[in-house]
Amino acid sequence: MARKAFFSFHYKPDNWRASQVRNMGVLEGNQPVSDNDWEAVTSGGEEAIKSWIANQLSGKSCAVVLIGSATAGRKLITHEIRTAWDSGKGVVGVYVHNLKDSDEHQSTKGSNPFNSITMTRNSAKMSTIVKAYDPPFTASTNVYNHIKTNLDGWVEEAVSI
Fold it and tell me: What pTM was estimated for this model as a whole?
């Protein structure tokens, strides 16, 4: 049975890449939110967004952070990571910059978002514990196949951590 996962990603540049990962069928993920639904959520302000994130994380065993060129340092992504970690869920990162978007473009590799998050208990960087996997290919089809083959194992490892 596939693990239930929450997918965290920078919407505008990476939603196409995220849908590719979601549609692999390796994990049971949260349903994509439409532009109109997201506008409704965001119109309620920061607390409404945080409530939506908490609801989306409920019942999930892992947060999968899909790392694109501008994922690191985004306030809501950092919040999603912290919320998942603090609630005992697995957290894992997967670089998706070499997956093609809807225009058949790849992007540049972004920074590891876990490097900028300090753990509250021991003041260590989250990147010393949480892994971020960078598929060792540049061709989009090879990156896709690598993620599809390994994602369930990466999630299992993250949950065990």
Answer: 0.92
Domains in the chain, CATH or no CATH each: 4-160 (3.40.50)
Number of H helices, E strands in the chain: 5, 5
**pLDDT cut 70: percent of the chain above it:** 93
Residue 70 C-beta-side C-alpha neighbours within 13 Å? 7
* Distances in whole angstroms, Cα of residue 77 to Cα of each of 81, 132, 142, 145: 6, 15, 27, 25
Query: Containing H/E element for 63?
Result: strand 62-67
Cβ neighbours of 53 (radius 10 Å): 19
